Amino acid sequence: MIYKDGYIKVRELREEDNHLLAKWLSDPEVLQYYEGRDNPFDLEKVNEKFYNCDENEMKCMIVFDSVEIGYIQFYKLDEETRNHYGYIDSTDKIYGMDQFIGETNYWNKGVGTDVVKSMVTFLIKQKHADLVVMDPQTWNERAIRCYEKCGFKKAALLPKNELHEGEYRDCWLIEYRR
User: Fold this and answer.
1) Domains (ranges, CATH) in the chain?
2) Which InterPro entries would you find in this protein's record (predicted)?
């Protein structure tokens, strides 16, 4: 287990979680916000993207009252990403994070806010992060409101930063400073 905070537990991704990831990442409601509806995942694609890749990323499951409801990952920013975000000369210890709640019946209940707050607390207290960053797409106002409730601030506009549903979308670089 990575950490437990009240009713939320974050644990490392296990091989048997691939079926849940495939279920969530083939749901058009989830894909609208994460990966894109034109990019559904099957088991093979889940295994390729989540299990055979960057060991710098800590890939985790979000568990709410013993039910797996979503995915979260965190990582120390590498030199290329630091440069892309404009932190190349910074001596700050910077972590990035990404997440989604795959069980849509947990949406709009404050669970996402609690997950983000608890992960930020973990990164600051346990990983000694000076700065936590994310780059949500500018149109995703619900996610941005959640992140702002958690203390994130918009730092920079990242034009045409992420391919989503056939077009490059603008994103906000948002920061949480210790």
Assistant:
1) 3-177 (3.40.630.30)
2) Acyl_CoA_acyltransferase, GNAT_dom
Q: Is 157 exposed, middle or buried (0-12, 13-18, 19+ CB in 10 A)?
A: exposed
Token pair 């209940």 is found at 109
Rounded to an integer, what distance in angstroms lies between the CA atom of residue 29 and that of residue 17?
Answer: 20
Query: Looking at the DSSP assignment, which residues form a beta bridge with residue 173?
Result: 156
In this prediction the pTM is 0.95
Could you say which DSSP state residue 140 is in? Answer: -
Name the residue with tokens 């997950």: 115
Render pLDDT for 33-85 as a digit per residue (tens, 0 to 9).
Answer: 999 999 999 999 999 999 987 678 999 999 999 999 999 999 999 999 999 99
Which residue shows structure tokens 């990831």? 21
The structure tokens listed for 64 are 């709410």
Q: Rounded to 10 degrees, what is the CA torsion of 34, 144, 6, 118?
A: 90
